[in-house]
Amino acid sequence: MKKILVTGGSGDIGEAICRTLASSGAHVVLQYHQAQKRAQAIAKEIKGHALQADLASEVEIKKMIQQASKHLGGLEALINVAGFPINKKTRSYWDLPFEKISRKMFEDVFAIDTLGTISCIQAVLPIFKKQKFGKIINFASSSALLGHNQGYPFNVAKAGLINLTKSLAPELGPYGITINAIAPCSIRTHWLDHYPKHVETQLKKKIPLGRLGTPEDVAQLVSFLISTGGDWLTGQIYLMDGGETL
Q1: How far is Cα of residue 71 from the mean position of the Cα atoms in its chain?
Q2: Residue 161 exposure: Cα atoms within 13 Å on the Cβ side
Q3: In this model, does residue 192 exceed pLDDT 80?
């Protein structure tokens, strides 16, 4: 697998995926929205290419797919990592009771996490169908599988991607296209920096393997799924939680 587009490539998990794939010889284009300096630095280090695109815009998504395909001389895999940013400014909705969350907040999260992913897949399918090959990996969440009484917009948006993944697999299979999803839980990224230190300690105690997952752990699963080892895997949801939800 040599020609790969990674959305959200400037985030912690996206960066790890880009670096892991590039180290195995892949040619990577990474999408970013606002983190231009970080994205360009990553692209330079992995000898890849960075593209700016707002994934809330169907027009920009189509342009991104065209540019990525042109730069790489084709596309073989689409890794949909990008999601609505959770930071100090936006995480206020996370702890709100359901009835206090505005419709706009749901719409903002859905626009990136669900509709953005849908539009990326729709834009790349003509390429994959024509060549009778392609691999798609979506990013869901453990909370989308199991439910969680916080972060309702995120949970519901990611649950939609789980159903999308399972529903599309039978349609895309005859074209030689696989589609799977990864549902991470308790991965050590910068989102934890917005919480008190004791939160990380408490999380570790819930995990049988005794540590949080790392972006590199996630990247290794992505690498396997887009390798020949993942050729007969489709429509699956891979829960990565170190045993936390058992």
Answers
A1: 21
A2: 40
A3: no
